[in-house]
Amino acid sequence: SNFTLVVDAIEMSKNKWQAKYIWNNVSCVDTNKYTCVTSNVYYEVSMEQSIRLFVKCSIQVLNDSLQGEEIQTEIGGNAVISLEVLGHPKPAKFELFKGIKMSAVDINMFNVTFTESVSPYGNITLTLQNLQNDDLTFYTLIVYNGIGNPLKYRFILMKAREEVASTTPAIIGGVLGGVIFVILICIGVFICRK
Question: The whole model's pTM is what?
Answer without folding.
Answer: 0.69
